[in-house]
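Record type: monomer structure entry
Structure origin: computed from sequence
Chain ID: A
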Amino acid sequence: MKKSKLARLALVTLISFSLFNCEKDTEEVFQENQIDHSKSAHVCIAKWDAPDGAKATSVKAKQWETGQTIRIKFLNGSNFVQSKVRQYAVQWEDYANLKFEWVSSNSSANIKIAFREGQYANEAGSWSYLGTDSNSYAHSMHFGWFDNNTTDAEFRRTTIHEFGHALGLIHEHQNPVAGINWDKETVYAYYAGPPNNWSRAQVDNNLFRRYEANISNYSTYDPLSIMHYPVPAEHTLDGVGVGSNNQLSATDKAFIGSIYPFPDTGGDPCAGVAPYNGSTSYSTGDQVTYNGDLYQRTSTGWSNLGACGPVSTDPCDGVAPYNGSTSYSTGDQVTYNGDLYQRTSTGWSNLGACGG
C-alpha cells in the first residue's frame, strides 16, 4: 500500500464524536445515538445479482488494470453536487494505483454518473455497477438522494461507498467470515417498508447472501469498512450493531492498495511525481511536488498530503495521542500508553504496539 504516513495524516485530521470517556453515561449516550443514526441511513442497491443457484461473480474478474486512468463523466446534476462527488471520490486515489480523469458529458467514459432528475427522476436509490462492468452501461452509477441540502457526511459516506463498488469491492457485511447474527424476520419487515420497499428476495441478495471465501474482498471481517451497511442493534439476535461508517477504514486503505499496488519506490510518496509547473493545467486528482511536500489537486484547490522522503514503518507515526477533551468518530485513530487504537461503533480497538 502507498504512503502509510499519508494515511495517518488523513486520520489525524478527522475529528467528530467521543472516546475513552471515563463516565459511563456519556459513552452510552454516544453509542445509542450512533445506532439511532444507523436506522435512518440510506443504503445502496447491489447491481451484480447472480442467477439463482449460481456462484457469486468473481470480484477479481471485475478489477481495473493497476495504474489505469479511469474516465468519469456526469450525465446530469448541479455544479454543487458534482463538485461534492469529485471531492470525496478522489480519496481512493491516495491508496489505489489508479487515476480518475473527469471528462465532459459528451466524452467517452468508463463510469457514467447520474442524479435523480430529468430522465432519471424515478430512480430513487443509489448504486454502482461492479468494477469494469461499468464499461458496459450508459448509466453506470447513480446517486438518488443527493441535492443541494445534503450534508457533507452523507456526500462522503455514499460517494466513497459507491466508488468502492466501481473499483470492484462488494458489501462488507456479505463477507463470508462476517458472522452477523441477523434477526431475519425483523430485517425483512424493516426493509419491506419505505424508502426501500424491498421484497424478501431483495433483502436476501443485499444483506444475507454470503460470498465464497475465494472471491471475498477481505480475508478478515471489518465492521468499520466504508463498504458495510449500517446495522441497527435490533436487527441482530445478539444486539450487536454497526454504525453508519462515513470514511475509509484502515482495512479499506490497506486492501485497495493490495489489489491496485503502487510501484516500489523505496517508500518515498513523491517518487515519480513531477514538480509543480505554473504553466501546466491540472485536473482534480493530479499530484505534484512543491517545496519538499506532496500536493494533490482537489475541486477547490490543492491539498498538502505530507512531506516527501522515506515513509516511516511505525503505525503510530503521525497519529495524535488520545485527548480526553476531543470528540472522536468511528474510524479515528489515537495513540495511548504506547499502543495504537481505532474507534469502533461500540468502543475502541487496540491495533497493536507503536514502533517501527
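Annotation 1: The first strand starts at residue 69 and ends at 74.
Annotation 2: The mean pLDDT is 79.
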